[in-house]
Amino acid sequence: MLSLHGVVKDFPGAILPAVDNVHINLYPGELLGLLGPSGCGKTTLLRLIAGFEQPQAGRIFLADREIACPNCNLPPERRGVGMVFQDYALFPHLTVAQNIAFGLKQQKGWRRSGLQQRVLEVMTLASLEGLHKRYPHELSGGQQQRVALARALAPNPSLILLDEPLSNLDVQVRLRLRQELRTILKKAGTSAVLVTHDQEEALSVCDRVAVMRQGRVEQIATPQDLYDQPATRFVAEFVTQANFIPAQRLLQSWKTEFGTIYLAEPGVDLEDGVDLMLRQEDLRLELDPQGIAVVRDRQFLGREQRYSLVTESGLELVARVALSQTLEVGDRVAVTFDPQVVKVFRRNNQPLAVVADRSPRSPLPVLAAS
Ligand SMILES: Nc1ncnc2c1ncn2[C@@H]1O[C@H](COP(=O)(O)OP(=O)(O)OP(=O)(O)O)[C@@H](O)[C@H]1O
After folding, report:
1. Residues 119 and 214 both lie in one domain
2. Which of 7, 58, 278, 287 is the most buried (most CB within 10 A)?
């Protein structure tokens, strides 16, 4: 559907390319997220696909047609790609129906009745029934964004590009629209590329997510695989917001501030110092006057509590636990976990993850100060 081969975009004067040797294949009907921190190149990559930027190296194909390379650049209006922006970009002097019809009118061959029919179709798809005579200022933010989406879908593009489409909305609306966005795009059967810096949004809306860092795609995978098998420490940290515990090599095990961890594979090719990943939901806390960590902050998350902890060495940990367990700020706690859930990451961010020993012989580390 969309294919990027070794795409590079370098802005004059920049130390690193904004987009650096990116390879991506998008399948028909697939929703792909571009996720990463500010400045990692997400928007530039989207603009390359849209045709607002031209690559210095690499090639971009849309449905087997080459649309961009260092010597070729099909103009945006001839790519048949729909765009949805963060700020909706609706025409304030046009009604909802006129806004949606706008893109269709640019296309040749639409008869008046067919055009009206198509406007009604996409309005229904985007749950905008009854709003056709309203002006943008008479709509809520969520409704405006659905109009922008309907307008982009109206000409039936093969691909829709969405640049942070939910980031101007308040939290409640954003959460609801996430699901609606996915439903609308899936019903339309359109492929889409969605730029976001919000990992929850990317994981909940998209079929696959490309995690970007410094212009490169660090990992591209399904939300579940990104969460379960992050390829690098950066992906693990950005996507799962996990804890990382420094560990030093012993002969067949790893020494940490908390105790000794045994791995299924000793990791002979690993450096002597690594970071062990523990997800927030994997830590178990128990009130213990001899415990290694102190509760520094507590956040009520509705279904669970989120505790910020600090250990004696100053290491900060975050744990999410059931509501039934209430600890107070200042409480000293023992921290334990199942060694099976530990993943090992190189500190230099090079890919390699070793899962801790799954055998019952591996002693459960009790993370208490000794
Ligand atoms: N027109 C430009 N001229 C020069 N440098 C640019 C230009 N556009 C982007 N950059 C640089 O390219 C890099 C990637 O920018 P880009 O906007 O693609 O990042 P992003 O991941 O979308 O960030 P954000 O989430 O903050 O929008 C940044 O270092 C940025 O400063």
Report:
1. yes
2. 7
In the reported structure, the alpha carbon of residue 215 is separated from the centroid of ligand 1 by a whole-number distance in angstroms of 9
pLDDT per residue as tens digits for the range 180-209: 999 999 999 999 999 999 999 999 999 999
Nearest CA to ligand 1 atom 31: 39
Tell me: do 68 and 160 sit in the same domain. yes
ipTM value for the complex: 0.97
Query: Which residue from 34, 35, 40 has its CB within 8 A of the most atoms of ligand 1, so it is best to mutate?
Result: 40
251 shares its domain with 220: no
* pLDDT of 31: 96
- Type of residue numbered 153: L
CA-to-CA distance for 21 and 213, rounded, in angstroms? 12
Ligand 1 geometric centre to CA of 345 (Å): 29
Please check whether residue 237 lies inside any domain of the structure. no
Helices (H), the chain: 42-50, 96-106, 112-125, 141-153, 171-188, 199-205, 223-228, 233-235
Q: How many domains does the chain have?
A: 2
Cα(44) to centroid of ligand 1, in Å? 6
Considering the domain architecture, whether residues 287 and 192 belong to the same structural domain is answered as: no
